[in-house]
From TrEMBL:
Keyword Transport carried by entry: no
Keyword set includes Membrane: yes
Domain Outer membrane protein assembly factor BamE: start-end pairs: 30-96
Protein name in the entry: Outer membrane protein assembly factor BamE
Organism, scientific name: Parachitinimonas caeni
UniProt family annotation: Belongs to the BamE family.
Coiled-coil boundaries: none
Major site of localization recorded for this protein: membrane
Gene: bamE
Phylogenetic classification of the source organism: Bacteria, Pseudomonadati, Pseudomonadota, Betaproteobacteria, Neisseriales
Length: 126
């Protein structure tokens, strides 16, 4: 038989632990497509050229072989905080259309070659 004092203490401990939750990682999933990547796409490119620019698509539907879908989402604390979709369309082996959501362009730092100048410095005359 459980003594009432022990049962009360056990109940207090178990309810006191309810604030503990498992840690949930912030995990990006899929293929992030940036604005600078989509700027490189040109109508008429081949599938291999598009794959070189954007990477492999997340989805290649067996019923729609001329459409590639790129899906990206990021979860923070177990909840989806950002979701982006981008698609490209082909006619045979040639790119005929594209559209969807992109992430902002990446900030790329240009490191000059030894003895060289950056493009910004060359424009400024330096």
């Amino acid at each position: 038989m459980i003594k009432p004092a022990f049962a009360l203490a056990l109940a207090a401990c178990l309810t006191g632990c309810s604030f503990l939750t498992p840690y949930k990682l912030d995990i990006p999933q899929g293929t992030p497509i940036t604005a600078d990547q989509t700027a490189k796409l040109k109508l008429g490119m081949t599938r291999s050229q598009v794959r070189f620019v954007l990477g492999s698509p997340l989805l290649q539907d067996a019923f729609h072989g001329n459409r590639w879908d790129y899906v990206f989402y990021e979860s923070k604390g177990g909840k989806v905080s950002e979701q982006k979709r981008y698609h490209v369309l082909f006619d045979g082996d040639r790119l005929v259309g594209m559209g969807g959501d992109t992430l902002p362009a990446r900030n790329v730092t240009v490191i000059p070659a030894p003895g060289g100048t950056t493009p910004e410095a060359a424009k400024a005359g330096g």
